[in-house]
Design brief:
Layout lengths: L5 E7 L10 H7 L3 E4 L7 E8 L6 H5 L3 E9 L1 E3 L8 E4 L5 H7 L5 E5 L8 E2 L2 E2 H6 L9 E14 L2 E8 L5 H11 L4 E11 L2 E2 L9 H8 L2 H5 L5 E5 L2 H7 L16 E5 L5 E6 L4 E5 L9
Parallel strand pairs: 3-12, 14-15
Antiparallel strand pairs: 1-3, 2-3, 4-11, 4-12, 5-6, 7-10, 8-9, 10-11, 12-13, 15-16, 16-17
């Protein structure tokens, strides 16, 4: 497949870490492969994968809002707040009416305490590593936004909900806090990420399908075009020749909202990604060489 900088939408399987889900892609596309927005091992769903110099756009994708289908198990809480942990509390099941009555507290911007079993760093070390070494870690609350929380079903203590949230929101913490708000306890039993910004799980491919990876790689320009902060510009062949030598094209015009710009040649081929604020070339997607013409 080569090492052309690309964006891939991948369907991560449950039981794999986000990192290990990239191994098949690395074998096909080279070593420089990263992802934007980690999913826990037990979770599944949409993962945005960036290859080559396109990994420099990681902050753009990591900061996007996300939508999940969450399965919350009431009556038991685990130390990790997910199905992989040890049960640390039990309680009676709440009624569906009690759950609905608690929902207003889970709308808008709220203060959330992240799980102690998380990749967040506390004093320079992962919180989860500190907890596993026997430390008691106090996690600080931080503001997150819950845009919507739709209850889909509730049966035998298992609530299925569609939850749309801002970057940095822990659905495990929502499960814990909802359990407490209902006078019970709860943990997250299953999680599927269905959306990241303008990207959807239905479009995602499996990493063990090389043909699908090739097709997805070819869609990079189309995927980038959905991002509001990504502008579009075109320049001539002479400017493209200078671009190959690191010279920023002076003819590029941008909108105030453009954090990045896709630069196309006169024939519509995506050649580079630019940062117009500092007039910098983020990455060469298909470097132009005068001998092409």
């Amino acid at each position: 497949m080569g090492t052309t900088p690309s964006i891939l939408l991948v369907n991560k399987e449950s039981g794999k870490t986000s990192f290990s889900s990239l191994w098949a892609i690395k074998r096909l596309m080279g070593k420089k492969v990263g992802h934007a927005g980690t999913l826990d091992k037990f979770a599944q769903g949409l993962l945005i994968v960036l290859t080559g110099p396109m990994t420099r756009l990681n902050p753009l994708f990591s900061n996007m809002d996300k939508r999940y289908r969450a399965s919350i198990r009431f009556g038991t809480e685990t130390d990790t707040l997910d199905p992989e942990g040890e049960i640390v509390a039990t309680a009676a099941l709440p009624s569906f009416e009690e759950i609905k009555a608690a929902l207003p507290a889970f709308q808008g911007t709220v203060q959330q305490v992240p799980p102690s079993y998380s990749a967040l760093h506390v004093d320079g070390q992962r919180a989860s590593d500190r907890v596993r070494s026997g430390e008691v870690v106090e996690m600080k609350s931080r503001p997150v936004t819950i845009y919507s929380f739709e209850l889909l079903s509730y049966e035998d203590g298992l609530l299925v909900a569609d939850i749309f949230v801002s970057k940095g929101t822990y659905i495990r913490s929502i499960a814990r806090d909802l359990g407490k708000a209902c006078g019970s306890c709860a943990h997250l039993e299953a999680l599927v990420r269905t959306e990241i910004g303008p990207f959807f799980l239905e479009e995602a491919i499996k990493t063990d399908d090389p043909e699908a990876l090739v097709v997805s790689q070819a869609n990079t320009a189309s995927l980038l075009g959905r991002v509001d902060a990504m502008g579009r510009a075109e320049c001539g062949w002479n400017e493209l020749a200078r671009l190959a030598n690191g010279i920023y094209p002076p003819s590029v015009q941008i909108r105030p909202s453009d954090k990045y710009v896709m630069l196309f040649d006169p024939e519509g081929t995506l050649r580079a990604i630019l940062d117009p604020t500092v007039r910098k070339i983020i990455c060469h997607v298909a470097p132009y060489r005068p001998k092409e013409r």
